[in-house]
């Protein structure tokens, strides 16, 4: 009886095993080749290319105006009108402000009257040229000359009369003294004319000064630029040199940069500079113009200046700028797409495919330009790299779909 029961149990076990076998075989066949229960991802690869990239130095700085001047009057007075305001553009020589000219006009009239007085003392008519004046022809000198000639004749007659013993020696001495006095007065008359000519020249200078002061009641732009700030209002009294407006030259602009010492040796005047401004998608071109003669000891940087054209006024002084200085037009480089670079924990790597699996390669990157990255170490030109690897990790099975 017992043996029959064991036979029934063994038969049932055999039957159950036979029913399970097909299903078990079906489960194994449904698994992917990797045995992970997940689909094999498809990836796209491209070869690392051998290209040429310019050698550049990056720095940031501030745009500054080529000229920045607080303009004031050369004379004191009350402001009559302001001809420029904040943001106004001005050409060279354009009036910016004016003072009430009454005082300057009166000083000019006074100087003109003093000049005419000096000319009259020389006997000059309004149309006469003082440069052609001969001192000997002036009335003062001619009068002194006549007195001198009369004294000379008197002395000569006295000498003759003394020889004839018609007059005494004292009369001759008196005639000689009269001649000496007349000669001194003649010399004094000539010197007086020279003095009056000097006074005339002084009056001409004073008139020129008065005219200049009248001209200085108008403030002119010393260079082409734009008004950055207005300091006074109409009716305000201003002193000599007090700022009226601040004018800046906006073309070209100066870009002041602090370049690290390690990059300073590659810089030369005339190198091309690419400039980008915050909020402006356009890239502006300039040239390196000036380099400091010494390294700043505190920051270990070299101060340089680039000239950036700004004829359209799109750039403003004071703006923060990022600059790229091209130190070499082109050097050989191994390039990969920027999307193939994976950064994790501060390390950069790319993924390649070997025998159906992804392989991580740690790399050292360099310059970046237009979606490509220079590879300094880690892979060579021609090596296949995965584009946009996403969350792919090394050792994972992959399928290559093409390049």
Distance between the termini: 75 Å
Low-confidence stretches: 1-36
Average predicted confidence as pLDDT = 86
SS field, number of helical segments? 5
Write the layout of secondary structure elements.
Blueprint: H1 2-30, E1 42-47, E2 49-72, E3 77-82, E4 89-90, E5 95-99, H2 102-121, H3 139-163, H4 169-215, E6 218-220, E7 225-230, E8 237-238, E9 243-260, H5 261-264, E10 272-277, E11 280-296, E12 301-308, E13 320-337, E14 342-344, E15 347-354, E16 357-362, E17 364-369, E18 372-377, E19 384-387, E20 399-402
Parallel strand pairs: 1-20
Antiparallel strand pairs: 1-19, 2-9, 2-13, 3-5, 3-8, 4-7, 5-6, 7-9, 9-12, 10-11, 10-13, 11-12, 13-18, 14-15, 15-16, 17-18
Helix pairs in contact: 2-4, 3-4
General description of the model:
The chain is of the alpha+beta class and about 400 residues long. It folds into three domains: about 80 residues, conserved putative lor/sdh protein from methanococcus maripaludis s2 fold (Beta Barrel); about 90 residues, Elongation Factor Tu (Ef-tu), domain 3 (Beta Barrel), CATH 2.40.30; about 120 residues. It has five helices and 20 strands. The strands form four sheets. Strands 2-9-12-11-10-13 form a six-stranded antiparallel β-barrel. A hairpin with a 2-residue loop joins strand 10 and strand 11. The two termini are about 75 Å apart.
């Amino acid at each position: 009886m017992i043996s029959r029961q064991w036979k029934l149990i063994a038969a049932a076990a055999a039957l159950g095993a036979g029913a399970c076998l097909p299903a078990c075989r079906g489960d194994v066949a449904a698994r992917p080749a990797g045995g992970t229960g997940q689909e094999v991802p498809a990836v796209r690869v491209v070869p690392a290319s051998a290209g040429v990239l310019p050698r550049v130095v990056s720095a940031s700085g501030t745009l500054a105006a080529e000229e920045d001047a607080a303009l004031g009057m050369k004379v004191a007075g009350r402001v009559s009108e302001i001809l420029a305001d904040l943001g106004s553009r001005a050409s060279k020589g354009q009036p910016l402000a004016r003072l009430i000219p009454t005082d300057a006009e009166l000083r000019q009239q006074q100087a003109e009257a003093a000049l005419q007085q000096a000319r009259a003392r020389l006997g000059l008519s309004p149309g006469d040229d003082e440069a052609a004046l001969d001192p000997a022809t002036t009335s003062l000198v001619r009068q002194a000359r006549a007195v001198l000639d009369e004294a000379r004749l008197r002395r000569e007659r006295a000498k003759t009369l003394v020889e004839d013993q018609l007059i005494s020696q004292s009369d001759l001495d008196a005639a000689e003294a009269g001649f000496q006095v007349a000669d001194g007065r003649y010399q004094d008359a000539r010197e007086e004319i020279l003095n009056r000519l000097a006074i005339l020249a002084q009056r001409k200078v004073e008139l020129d000064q008065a005219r200049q002061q009248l001209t200085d009641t108008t403030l002119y732009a010393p260079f082409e630029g734009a008004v950055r700030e207005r300091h006074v209002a109409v009716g305000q009294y201003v002193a000599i040199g007090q700022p009226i407006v601040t004018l800046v030259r906006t073309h070209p602009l100066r870009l002041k940069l602090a370049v690290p010492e390690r990059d300073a040796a590659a810089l030369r005047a005339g190198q091309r500079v690419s400039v980008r401004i915050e909020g402006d998608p356009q890239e502006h071109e300039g040239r390196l113009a000036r380099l400091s003669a010494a390294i700043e000891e505190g920051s270990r940087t070299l101060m340089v200046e680039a000239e950036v054209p700004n004829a359209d006024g799109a750039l403003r002084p004071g703006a923060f700028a990022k600059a790229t200085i091209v130190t070499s037009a082109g050097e050989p480089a191994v390039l990969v797409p920027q999307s193939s670079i994976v950064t994790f924990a501060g390390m950069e790597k790319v993924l390649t495919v070997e025998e159906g699996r992804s392989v991580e390669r740690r790399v050292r990157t360099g310059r970046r330009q237009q979606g490509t990255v220079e590879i300094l170490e880690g892979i060579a030109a021609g090596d296949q790299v995965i584009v946009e690897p996403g969350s792919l990790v090394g050792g994972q099975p992959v399928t290559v779909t093409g390049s």
